[in-house]
Write a structure and sequence with these properties.
about 290 residues, alpha/beta, eight-stranded mixed β-sheet, globular
């Protein structure tokens, strides 16, 4: 029963628990690996490729959520892959995990690196952080990509919300399972029980960002799986809050909304970040002039 429950919890949190792929054995001594002391955090980030910066934010628990898609995204731009507070090589502090404060960390990093306005892309938990970065710091975000993210807690199916509410209480059972996994071996300094507890404390809290979404300044792409953990009704609500789905675009497309909406077929919340179609969709959006 414990193993089955762990798999359920882990998959809702965007941990590919059956395979737990890791990007492999990078160390902070690598030329592309760095730390920045920003916003009271010792934030780890790695730099890949060249071109316009894309700040990449992983899903919950697993800092390597994007797998080989990180390298695909870096073929046409400079990808700055951040490890969020308490994840991967970024140590924890006594601050609770909150999307708002982690968004502040990302904005502080963009300013620290003197990137001006950067494109920001986040998946699942990282999508919530990316959204808060754009809401709270519009001056540092150019284009925004939200992958399998919700603007309200009830955007998730009820069983997902129920799992979030139990995660903190069961952290002591789930932590050792990840510690013994390939992911745990790749990041031996992570206190996995603590991480599950803090992520549980974050995800159990109701939130509603609908009003903020309607006022977003950043051009935004929403990407979902066709069998996502996000309810399809919520996907459409999110899209409508961004100005989409209200009218026909016209024969010449001139009336289409400024933002974009994509659903990846034959994918789930737990496979979307590593789906080979994702980088193609993202690059088409980021490269578009309109």
């Amino acid at each position: 029963m414990l193993r089955r429950d762990f798999l359920k919890i882990a998959t809702v949190l965007a941990v590919p628990a059956t395979t737990l792929p890791v990007q492999a054995k990078e160390t902070p001594n690598m030329p592309n690996a760095n730390f920045a002391d920003v916003n009271g955090q010792h934030l780890f980030y790695s730099v890949h490729g060249a071109g316009k910066p894309l700040v990449l934010l992983h899903g919950g628990i697993n800092p390597d959520s994007f797998g080989s898609n990180l390298a695909e995204l870096a073929k046409g731009r400079q990808v700055i892959a951040v490890h969020l507070q308490a994840h991967g090589r970024t140590p924890d502090t006594d601050r609770p995990l909150r999307s708002e404060t982690m968004g502040d960390d990302v904005a502080a990093l963009i300013r620290h690196l003197r990137l001006g306005k950067a494109d920001v892309m986040g998946y699942s938990l990282g999508g919530g952080v990316a959204l808060q970065t754009a809401i709270r710091h519009p001056d540092v975000v150019d284009r925004l990509v939200l992958v399998s993210a919700a603007m309200r807690q009830d955007g998730f199916y009820p069983e997902g919300v129920a799992a979030f509410k139990q995660l903190e209480a069961n952290a002591a059972a789930y932590g050792p399972g990840v510690k013994a996994s390939p992911l745990g071996q790749a990041y031996p300094d992570v206190d996995w029980t603590n991480l599950f507890s803090k992520v549980g404390d974050l995800t159990k809290r109701p939130f509603d960002l609908s009003a903020d979404v309607a006022k977003l300044q950043a051009r935004t792409l929403l990407v979902f799986a066709d069998a996502d953990a996000i309810r399809p009704e919520h996907m459409v609500e999110f899209w409508k809050a961004l100005g989409g789905g209200h009218r026909d675009a016209g024969v010449d497309g001139s009336l289409r909304p400024a933002n974009r909406f994509a659903i990846v077929p034959n994918s789930t919340h737990y496979t979307l970040a590593v789906d080979p179609m994702l980088p193609k969709i993202v690059e088409r959006f980021l490269a578009s002039e309109s």
